[in-house]
Amino acid sequence: MGNDVSSTTARTLIPLDDSACWQLYNGVNERSEPISFFIAKQTFSVECRRSIQYLKTIRHPNIIKFLTGFKTFADQDSFIADCVHPLANKLNNNDIDSTAKLCLGLYQLSQALEFLHEKASISHNNVCLISLYISLNGIWKLGNFECACRYDNLNKKYLSNLKIIRSEECITPEEDEK
């Protein structure tokens, strides 16, 4: 796929219930292949750029695959990725119909986290349902890297600065200790 965004067509807005940073659209590229458009919300442009930078450099089958970046007409940072849907939507619609599929998905998530921690020395800092996506072929993928950082930059101040966009379930009690 080339970098020509004008030859792509956004077709459907996909609801991202609690995403503070992104709007998700699914569409097709010039070869009629399904793709996803992640368009940053202006309020969190710094965090969205961080997410894009990580996705540009990280390659793993269980992490959203960055294809190309672009700016919208309103100068919003955005990118095109392999076609995914929010996992929460699939779980709410009972599209994941067996325990075996759930176990496989959790295993895929653990593979992504193992890669981030062991190979890339990156902490995601917001692993929750809104950070999980599912591809068209049923593979679970980790996304939303706006809170991520390398381990050597991870500290309480960094995490507290991101509390506004982090999911409540991801904030550990230790972060609030003095």
TrEMBL record:
Superkingdom of the source species: Eukaryota
A GO MF term: protein kinase activity
Gene3D superfamilies on file: Phosphorylase Kinase, domain 1 (3.30.200.20), Transferase(Phosphotransferase) domain 1 (1.10.510.10)
Protein kinase domain ranges (all copies): 1-178
Family: Belongs to the protein kinase superfamily.
PANTHER family tied to this protein: PROTEIN-ASSOCIATING WITH THE CARBOXYL-TERMINAL DOMAIN OF EZRIN, SCY1-RELATED S/T PROTEIN KINASE-LIKE
The name this protein goes by in its record: Protein kinase domain-containing protein
Protein source organism: Adineta steineri
